[in-house]
Amino acid sequence: MADLDIEDIRALLSAKPRPVGWPARRARIEEVGAAWPVAADISLERASIDGMAGEWSCAPTSDPSRALLFFHGGGYCSGSIVSHRRMATEAGRAARARALAVEFRLAPEHPFPAAYDDALAAWRFLREQGFSARQIAVGGDSAGGGLTLALLMRLRDLKEALPACTWLVSPWTDLTLSGETLATKDDVDPLLHKAYLEELAQAYVPAGVDRRDPRVSPLFGDLSGLPPLMIQVGSNETLLADSTRLAAAAGAADVSVTLEIWPRMIHAWHLWNARLEDGRRALTHAGAFIQARLLEDGQIRVERLSDLRKP
Fold first, then answer.
1. Could you confirm whether 90 is annotated as catalytic?
2. pLDDT tens across 212-223, in order?
3. Are 44 and 38 in contact (CB under 8 A)?
C-alpha cells in the first residue's frame, strides 16, 4: 500500500468526533492504534509482571540479549499494548532488541502512584530475567515518556543500576500545563488541547499531590546522573515546550541529550509508521541511538583521542 502524508493522518483523526467517557476513549485509541497490524515477521509472546500484562516482541534481526522497555502513551488514562503494538514492535526492530511493552494501571480507577509503581515493577522484572542494566533501553511516548523519566529518577535515588539510554517521543513532562506551546500550537495540534490535558491531569494526580512533584512532572525534578537521552517531538504539537524545556534542563544537569524536532509532525507520529515514512524514519533514528549505547556483556567502548579529534 502507498504511504500516507501527515495531512492524510490528520484527516483520519478528524473523521470521527472525540469520544466521551473513559471506556469510549480507550476503545478509540485501540481502534486507531490497531488500524495497521504488526509486521508478519514479528514474534509476540505474553508476559505477566506481578499481575500486570506485558508483551514481548522480537524481529528476526533483534538480539535477544538486549531489551527495550516501552511505556505507552494515553495520558495515564488510556492506551494499551494493543494501541501501541505497531509502534513498540517496530521500535524494537529498529533498536535490534527484544521489546517489552507493559500495560500499567490506568487512572482514574488507579491514580498516581499506581503507574509509577508499575514502572518500577516492570524494570525489576526485566532485571530478574537476567538482563544487565547496560543491556536495557527504556522509552515511551507522551505520558509513557513522563513515566520513563520518573522511573529513571527513582532508580537513581534508590542507587540502583540505570539503563544504557532513554528514548522519549512527545513526552508529557509538565502536568502543571505551563508550557507556552499549549497556546501557540493549539491551532495546529489535532490531538491535544489544554482543556483535555487538564482533565487527564486531574484524573491521574490525586488532590493532595502537588503537580510539580517530579514523580508526576519530571520536568521539575533533578535530572542529574541520568543516562543519555533522546527526545523526538513534532513541531505541530502543543507539548513541544515540554520537550524543549526538558532538553534544556537535562543539558544544564550535564546529561547527554539528543533533541529532534520534526517539521510538520504531530503528537507521537511514530504510531502510524506502517504508512507514514516520517514515522519509520524517526524510528530508524531512535534505533541507531539505542544500538550505539547498548553494550554486550564484557564489551568496553573505548574512544581514542584520535577519534575524538575527527571532524
1. no
2. 999 999 999 999
3. yes
